[in-house]
């Protein structure tokens, strides 16, 4: 697609969005009024579905299909990072532990803190995901905690151990599976707060791991192949 064609598609999309936004703005209730149809319907639906809190009911019961779009934003971000940071022909990826990438020399206090916090942080992440239906949020926040908890090993200076702990193909499969199941559950309808929240936690956790993995690989393992210069990317 040419630059002019892409610009035309962009202008059409922006114009359509602007029209819909203006039409929606005219239908909003008066500011400061007592009539709030969305709020009233949200509370009524949450009570009808016996959801523990209105926020989870809105996210997973009433607008689950919309939440699918939000969920896939992180999926697309992780995919973009994987594609953008892939190893090209003039680069090569070293094995963890090669050329001095073994356990680094860090303070004993930092090493012990990392090892001690790793299982605790993983447990907290699981707890947040498992109880997401009881409090606002859950899957997103718990997934971030789980995804970053593994990288406490990096703070201990033991990158090879981190590399063994997070097999990338397994996390790629987990992210794709969680995203697919979440779409199916979003299309299925209401009353699925707990399984949908669990899929959110799995997808977010795997996506965080994949994104951080690619950044670590670029910073630590990817080296320019001098013999391959000039061959293109």
From TrEMBL:
**Taking every annotated instance into account, which residue ranges of this chain make up the domain Na+/H+ antiporter MnhB subunit-related protein?**
111-190
> Which positions carry the signal peptide feature in this UniProt record?
none
Keyword Ribosomal protein on this protein? no
In terms of Pfam families, this protein maps to:
MnhB
> InterPro entries of this UniProt entry?
CPA3_antiporter_subunitB, MnhB
Transmembrane regions listed in the UniProt entry = 7-28, 109-130, 136-155, 176-194, 200-216
Key words, A-Z: Cell membrane, Membrane, Transmembrane, Transmembrane helix
Give the membrane topology, semicolon-separated if more than one: Multi-pass membrane protein
List localization entries. Cell membrane
Q: Which domain of life is it from?
A: Bacteria
Reply yes or no: does the keyword Kinase apply: no
What family does this belong to?
Belongs to the CPA3 antiporters (TC 2.A.63) subunit B family.
Its name, as the record gives it, is Na+/H+ antiporter MnhB subunit-related protein domain-containing protein
State the organism named in the record.
Actinoallomurus spadix
């Amino acid at each position: 697609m040419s630059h002019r064609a892409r610009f035309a598609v962009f202008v059409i999309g922006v114009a359509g969005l602007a029209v819909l936004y203006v039409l929606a703005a005219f239908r909003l209730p008066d500011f400061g009024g007592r009539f709030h149809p969305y709020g009233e319907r949200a509370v009524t639906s949450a009570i009808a579905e016996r959801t523990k809190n209105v926020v989870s009911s809105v996210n997973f019961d009433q607008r689950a299909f919309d939440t699918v779009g939000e969920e896939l934003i992180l999926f697309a971000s992780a995919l973009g990072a994987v594609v953008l940071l892939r190893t090209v022909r003039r680069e090569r990826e070293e094995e963890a532990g090669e050329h001095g990438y073994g356990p680094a020399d860090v303070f004993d206090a930092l090493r012990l803190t990392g090892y001690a916090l790793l299982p605790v942080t993983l447990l907290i992440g699981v707890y947040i995901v498992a109880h997401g239906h009881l409090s606002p949020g859950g899957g997103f926040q718990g997934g971030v905690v789980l995804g970053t908890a593994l990288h406490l090993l990096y703070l201990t200076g033991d990158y090879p151990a981190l590399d063994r702990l997070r097999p990338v193909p397994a996390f790629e499969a987990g992210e794709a599976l969680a995203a697919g199941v979440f779409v199916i559950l979003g299309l299925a309808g209401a009353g699925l707060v707990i399984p949908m929240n669990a899929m959110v936690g799995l997808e977010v956790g795997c996506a965080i791991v994949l994104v951080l993995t690619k950044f670590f690989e670029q910073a630590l393992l990817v080296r320019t192949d001098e013999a391959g210069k000039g061959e293109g990317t």
